[in-house]
Amino acid sequence: MSPTFPSLLLDHAKRRPTAPALREKDFGIWQTLSWSELAALVRAMACGLAEAGLKRGEHLVVIGENRPRLYAAMLAAQALGAVPVPLYQDAAATEFVFPIRNADVAFAIVEDQEQVDKMTEVRASCPLLTRVWYDDGRGLRHYSEPGLAPLDALLEAGRAWDLQHPGFFEAEVENTKASDVAALFFTSGTTGNPKGVVHTHATLIDRAAAGARFDKLTENDEVLAYLPPAWVGQNIFSYAQWLVCGYVVNCPESASTVTIDLKEIGPTYYFAPPRVFEGLLTSVMIRMEDAGRFKRWLFDRAMALARRVGPALMDGKPVGALDRLRYALGKLFIYAPLRNTLGFSRVRVAYTAGEAIGPDLFTFYRSLGINLKQLYGSTETAVFVCLQPDNEARSDTVGVPIEGVELKVEPSGEILVRSPGLLKEYYKNPEATAEVLTADGWYRTGDAGFLDAAGHVKIIDRAKDVGRIAGGIHDGALFAPKYIENKLKFFPYIKEAVAFGDRREKVCVFVNIDMEAVGNWAEKRNLPYGGYTELSQKPEVAALIKDCVAKVNADLAADEKLAGSQISRFLILHKELDADDGELTRTRKVRRGYIAERYDVLVDALYGGKTEQYVETQVKFEDGRTGKVAATLKIVDVPVLPVMARAA
């Protein structure tokens, strides 16, 4: 019989009862939960939920950081044939209303006081939400909300129920089939309401197993679970593959201790979006700028050798004996200590996805001997569509289709996927389901790309975002905003970028500077500043960003298809784009349409030939307060280069 997540759990508990399943750092000490202890916890929680009235096919909301008892909550729901719905823990309360109402949710298990407050806030809008259990009781002693209780009370009730109903838990697990719905993931909702992606046990387990076979994952691997559990990628790496392989999942103490915890655990299997790898590299380079002259010289020489030799060694290509010796010495004195500092001393497989990664950044990690690769997939495909083989990792592709995957490219350039990991449907949204799933089983990814001569997939942009320049000397030229934005974000000084140009005569861009990188750059030059807004509008910073934009234009000019997409003008925004202000999704994807509407006065200024524009923007602070940020933004012109002839 095909496995389900609860059956996989019970199998591990039977075969390896004392082996570690989960670790959590609490008050600076790592606490371990074995497979048998986890199975007992899930059993008690499932029985408690059954006693409370959770039925097969109903939904249970789970909100919080990566915590063992929240993982157990998902397994407990699945054991009953119910469906866990993980939601983003950093979302505002209002963002919970649609998924809770859409999924007719009556029960929620949340992490702490912050999430309890959000549940309390939305209850008036979600009348079906009657029971909320919390894991961490700090600050909740005097709360007297109806239906609110600690998770310990649920577990106590569950143990009593289990004694009164012997065999109930085993029967429920047995009755749960691989074809049953296993989870409901809500997309980030770049436009309109988020869509609920329905996945079965079979779809998630199939893709998790295919990825595990591709990278030879075993029960001896270790991962650090630090990304939002509501994101399907975190669910695949730290839940689906965890239960398929039986490796150890480590939960950090808090978001602020992730870097320290990464070093302590030394995972063998690691995933991070490019922004995390960028942040780690930025911290290294800032530290090296503060080092003495000899150390900087030694580091620069060693890294120059590593960039020249390291990737070739990773790919199994021939390298001269002298270079091998030099690299071995560099590894002993520079590369290995640096890997240890980054927390990557034991990493065997590392992946990045979600955004394009800069070639220099990609080369840096591989030159240190870190097996960093790219993958391609989405919530709807259970993540694993394309992966890069160990000896074929490249920064400009997302890998090859893996086991079970078929790909085809439409004449429009859109990529279609067929695999055992496709979504069952969008929940209560047959129209949206029909838009993406064809009658013969193909999923429309919405991504524009192609397969290169080596069979690797290259992604250009979202198909709907690929447009054309209208008017001017580049009339009709291809405009791929994400491609341009990614090239800008390859520079450490640029954190976000938003490109405009479809059906316009030229391309203009909003830029967010990286506060840490530019702040350090400014301090080295004795440039005083009082915060992000002041720093972003310094003339010296504008010149720094203009140099980055000019380099992107030079790169675009060398591509006949995209030469017309060179950037003519840009401005540096007076505030960082923020998910709380609706400008980014919770997975940090730019909501381009919303930004264009919110800052229409700035878009008009860019295309109207102005040299500066005053703007005043309302923002929401972390504590829920609102305020305003105002500034007069300078608009910078950038030379557009002629199309460069490619070498024959």
Structure write-up:
With 648 residues, this protein is of the alpha/beta class. It has 21 helices and 28 strands. The chain folds into three domains: 5-209 and 228-251, ANL, N-terminal domain (Rossmann fold), CATH 3.40.50; 274-462, ANL, N-terminal domain (Rossmann fold, 3-Layer(aba) Sandwich); 466-637, 2-Layer Sandwich (GMP Synthetase, Chain A, domain 3), CATH 3.30.300.30. Helix content is 39%, strand content 21%. Strands 4-3-5-6-7 form a five-stranded parallel sheet, with helices on both faces. Strand 10, helix 9 and strand 11 (248-251) form a beta-alpha-beta unit. The termini are far apart.
How is the biggest beta sheet arranged?
A: 5 strands, parallel
Spatial gap, N to C terminus: 58 Å
Number of helices: 21
Please identify the top-level CATH class of the largest domain: Alpha Beta
What does the average pLDDT come to? Answer: 93
CATH architecture of the largest domain: 3-Layer(aba) Sandwich
Helix content: 25-40%
The CATH topology name of the largest domain reads Rossmann fold
What topology, given as strand order, has the largest sheet?
4-3-5-6-7
* Content-based structural category: alpha/beta
Strand percentage, roughly? Answer: 15-25%
Radius of gyration, whole Å = 26 Å
What's the structural domain tally? Answer: 3
Contiguous low-pLDDT stretches (5 residues minimum) are: none
CATH superfamily of the largest domain: ANL, N-terminal domain
What is the tally of beta strands? 28
Task: Using the alpha-carbon principal axes, give the shape.
Answer: globular
